[in-house]
Amino acid sequence: MGELWVIGEPGPDGGLARLSAEVATLARDLGAQGGRRVTGVAVAAEPEAMAAELARYLPTVLAIAEPAAGEHAWSALAAGRVAGLLEEHAAEPPDVILVGAGSDGRDFAGALSALTGLGVLTSATAVAWSDAGPAVEMSPFGGKLLTTCGFCEGRGIVTVRPSAADAVPADAVGVVEIRQAGGPALPRVKVLERATEAGAAAPIEEAKIIVAGGRGVGGPDGFVLVGELAKELDGAVGATRAAVDSGWIGYSQQIGQTGKIVKPNLYLALGISGAIQHKVGMQTAGSIVAVNRDPDAPIAEFADLLVVGDLFEVGAALLEQLRSRSG
Q1: Residues 14 and 92 placed together within one structural domain of the fold
Q2: Which residues pair with 268 in a beta bridge?
Q3: Count of structural domains within the chain
Q4: b/e string for 142-171 if b means 16 or more Cβ within 10 A?
Q5: Number of neighbours of residue 79 by Cβ within 10 angstroms
Q6: 6: which DSSP letter?
Q7: Disulfide engineering: 214 pairs with which of 69, 94, 113, 272, CB 3.0-4.6 Å?
């Protein structure tokens, strides 16, 4: 029986990144489809906490200490350790190595591919098991196409986009095994400073409800209404690239091809035309409600409900209804 490996990425607090929990859930389902064991790999300066979180989703987790990871960029160091682990498992290598398609995961996949010669399929939106191995669904060219690809030799690395799966813990907590691993030493990139955005809202990738504003909100003042609606709905604020580039809101709230990928239960779009670059980031939302003056705006083609009207009038009326209910 073959094996699937899930590479855990460190989160900002030193624990497990949420994206890694999503990847682990997807891998667990994939392993059940293909009759493969699923093993997690946690590489960090002090990997115990991250490995323990990953074990909530997977039956076995290998924890590998890499002391230099505390002061250096994680991806190259982790790639070296995983390459060493692959050498130890050369007789029975994993069929697929899965990692998140965030900035660290993409760097890791590229470095590991260079070290091992394994192919990479990037930014998977879904993965299923076929007779030929993993069937990886991707959405290239800004989401204009939907493709399904596999590996010529059945083995390789897959990076998984955020929100490709919901993070669901396993029925039982797995076992953490402390391992030592050698591997090639790649050039180290020293981290000089870590910055956290002051007053940042909860990550929009985790929000169940998102109220997003586009060029149609007109300016920073327009996001006041967006924020008030998000607060009443207990949701998060999102934005298009046009709004971010105009300086109306911070980049951390940008949704789309060059921003965040989100999958809320409800996506309320105010003054958003629905260009393909934005659609890529939110098209998997449970329900999409759009408010726009233009009945022929592109977002009308994929929204579940389109309200044609002035977003400030509609937004104010909606806010009044929400506040009367909560009162």
Answers
A1: yes
A2: 211, 289
A3: 2
A4: ebeeeeeeebeeebbbbbbbbbbbebeeee
A5: 26
A6: E
A7: 272
Collapsing DSSP states into helix, strand and coil, what is residue 266?
A: strand
Sole residue written with tokens 């590489």: 43
Closest CA relative to residue 176, chosen from 298, 16, 311, 283: 16
Amino acid letter, residue 19:
L
Using only C-alpha atoms, what is the Rg of the chain?
Answer: 21
Kindly report whether the global pTM for this prediction surpasses the value 0.85: no
pLDDT digits (tens, 9 = 90+) for 178-201: 998 887 878 888 888 776 654 445
Same domain, 79 and 167: yes
Q: Give pLDDT tens digits for 247-290.
A: 999 998 999 988 888 889 999 999 999 998 899 889 889 999 99
Q: Are residue 7 and residue 154 in the same domain, yes or no? A: yes
Mean per-residue pLDDT, 292-308: 95
Closest CA to 228 of 318, 165, 162: 318
